[in-house]
Design a protein that fits this description.
It contains 16 helices and 34 strands. The chain is an alpha+beta fold. Bound molecules: guanosine-5'-diphosphate.
Length: 611
């Protein structure tokens, strides 16, 4: 088949063959795969009404649209699939329990507490933590590491339960969105004095969508006006029928304040787990799990709380967690105790990673440091691409003129003290809407202080560096000062947003508006040797100002625009301005086509403030 020509550059047509591209690929990536010129693809896409540069990441629909146009089926590979393929190249898989089921050991349930705001999730998590007999005996102060384990006695056996210590749906859904199934059981907290509220229903929906059994904690039963029976009644409408009413859901009346019912709640969790789940894991395989929380610790560097899901994590293991990797230097539990190993469902703080992974990232232990590093590097590159694709504002074009105008871009590097705030800040910044002409782009983000390499990156690309609760380290400050890199520090998100918004506005090209200065009527035309025609005029309105812009109007039509008042005289003298009601001579430079009764309109272009 002959190659069709688009915009003069040839484009190889496909015959419906499939090309696989990672999400966030650019036209250059596509061009490489189908052996085409990137410019031809840019043109083809432009004809479809989208203007992108060759190296810019393009979203899924656009890639597919373009593919259809040029005869290729474009298969955008999801990050999950891509990651699976990446791991496969190292002969690794995530998520599969290995070995013979008979060898697996039972493991504790992992619980997430959800419910409407103010119904007592945080208090309940506190109460449960304090109810932990073992912790009290250990005498350690419980630290918040994102998850903790308590041990409770059931039918003469001491049994642990793991709680995710960040209440709310966000963490639950965020983890699920990243494909991490962490929660075995949801404790749905409903305040007995308030009843089922919107977020109660939302939590319930999330849990049911994830097919996770629910235990209902009817909280605040100590309060006057508490009506636990009403809660049971209300929830039947959502398919949660209490056991005592013949249903399958356990409801437990509790008070996070008086601590009444906490032991019963723990028992209900275990009974529900035993009844509906078969929680077992292989403790012998290479350990895997999920990151619950990541932060940068001043003394210890990157610290991640991980939940081991299978295998036994040990000190010295080579680990890759999301795009972070390292060797496990130490494992700490929520009491700050050093552990030698962590079994399935055990949350532990891992020290020894080179950077901070994000909540919801999965972790794997691999044979060699080198493998961990390679996986982390590849993931880092992919995350960058994908983020660029979703963050870059699509520029839609109305006409060719606008298409040719170059879009200006404000580049940012965001560094912060933990992954949550960095993500929150990035998300908030990306919501700033200023103008289609200006795109905001985050070229790098990370947890930790601002380093020399951040500044180097900033130098290359004309960037503002934002430090959120972090500072520039060592030589970075010096380099930034010397090279004049704009580094700004914030501790409040809103302040950062305000300033970046102002910076974006500052980048906008000024808008000018025409301000009328004055009009003059031509009474007589003088020929002045060497100068040309001069209009002997009467100022009709406003003021005629020398050097102002002018246009000539004859019989109501503009004869000439783009003129200027090059000379202005009153009688024999030069004047800078002449007011209404006075006569003057106006010279319009080389423009000589002036007739009696013409009107000279003068104006200036003034910058219009943006709102
Ligand atoms: P969250 O938004 O669901 O995390 O709710 P909190 O745990 O922050 O609790 C909200 C408010 O309810 C706080 O003022 C708590 O002191 C109060 N509260 C929580 N549990 C109880 C309880 O069992 N009894 C009483 N009387 N107040 C409670």
């Amino acid at each position: 088949m002959a190659a069709p020509s688009m915009g003069g550059v040839s484009l190889p047509r496909g015959n419906g063959q499939t090309v696989r591209l990672p999400r966030g690929a650019s036209l250059t990536d596509l061009a490489e795969r189908i052996n085409a010129q990137p410019a031809a693809l840019v043109t083809a896409l432009f004809h479809l009404g989208e203007m992108v540069t060759a190296t810019q990441s393009v979203n899924d629909e656009t890639l597919q649209l373009l593919g259809a146009e040029i005869g290729w089926v474009i298969q955008v590979v999801s990050p999950e699939d891509e990651d699976r393929e990446l791991l496969e190249t190292f002969d690794l898989t995530f998520g599969d329990e290995e070995g013979d089921e008979e060898d697996w050991s039972s493991r504790p349930p992992v619980v997430t507490v959800m419910g409407h705001v103010d119904h007592g999730k945080t208090k309940l998590l506190d109460a449960i933590r304090d109810a932990n007999v073992v912790a009290r005996e250990a005498g350690g102060i419980t630290q918040h590491i994102g998850a903790y384990q308590v041990v409770t006695e059931l039918e003469g056996l001491e049994r642990p339960i793991t709680f995710i210590d960040t209440p709310g749906h966000e963490s639950f859904t965020a983890m699920r969105a990243r494909g991490a199934k962490v929660t075995d059981i949801v404790v749905l907290v409903v305040a007995a004095d308030d009843g089922v509220m919107p977020q109660t229903v939302e939590a319930l929906n999330h849990a049911q969508a994830a097919d996770v059994p629910i235990v209902v904690a009817v909280n605040k039963v100590d309060k006057e006006g508490a009506n636990p029976a009403k809660i049971r009644q209300q929830l039947t409408e959502y398919g949660l029928v209490a056991e005592e009413y013949g249903g399958e859901t356990m409801f437990v009346d509790v008070s996070a304040i008086t601590r009444q019912g906490i032991d019963d709640l723990l028992a209900a969790i275990l009974l529900t787990a035993d009844a509906s789940l078969d929680l077992r894991a292989n403790t012998e395989q290479d350990p895997q799990g999920v990151v619950i929380e990541g932060k940068l610790d001043k003394g210890r560097g990157p610290v991640a709380t991980v939940l081991v899901q299978r295998g036994t994590l040990r000190q010295g293991d080579s680990i890759v967690a999301g795009d972070a990797y390292g060797r496990v230097r130490s494992l700490l539990d929520e009491h700050g105790n050093k552990l030698k190993e962590a079994l399935p469902a055990r949350p532990v703080q891992v020290v020894g990673l080179t950077s901070v992974p994000r909540a919801g990232d999965t972790f794997l232990v691999v044979e060699e440091d080198r493998v961990a590093r390679q996986i982390a590097d590849r993931r880092q590159a992919r995350i960058r691409n994908a983020q660029n694709a979703s963050m870059r504002k699509r520029i839609s074009l109305e006409d060719l003129d606008a298409a040719l105008k170059e879009t200006r871009q404000l580049n940012l590097i965001i560094k912060g003290d933990n992954s949550g705030t960095v993500e929150a800040l990035e998300e908030a910044l990306m919501k700033i809407e200023v103008d289609d002409e200006i795109a905001l782009r985050v070229i790098h983000r990370g947890v930790g202080g601002i380093t020399k390499s951040d500044i180097d990156l900033a130098l290359a690309d004309d960037v503002i560096v934002l430090g959120f609760n972090v500072r520039a380290e060592g030589q970075a400050t010096e380099l930034a000062n010397r090279e004049g890199v704009d580094v700004r520090y914030y501790t409040v998100i809103y302040q950062a947003i305000d300033e970046i918004e102002a910076a974006l506005k500052g980048m906008l090209k000024p808008i000018y508006e025409e301000i009328q200065l004055g009009t003059a009527e031509v009474r007589e035309v003088f020929r002045v040797p060497k100068i040309g025609n001069v209009a002997g005029s009467l100022v009709r309105s406003g003021t005629i100002v020398r050097n102002s812009k002018a246009r000539l109007i004859r019989d109501g039509a503009v004869v000439a625009d783009n003129l200027s008042v090059e000379s202005l005289r009153r009688f024999k003298d030069d004047a800078t301005e002449v007011r209404e009601g006075y006569e003057c001579g106006i010279g319009l430079g080389s423009f000589n086509d002036i007739k009696v009764d013409d009107v000279i309109e003068t104006f200036e272009m003034r910058e219009k403030p943006r709102d």
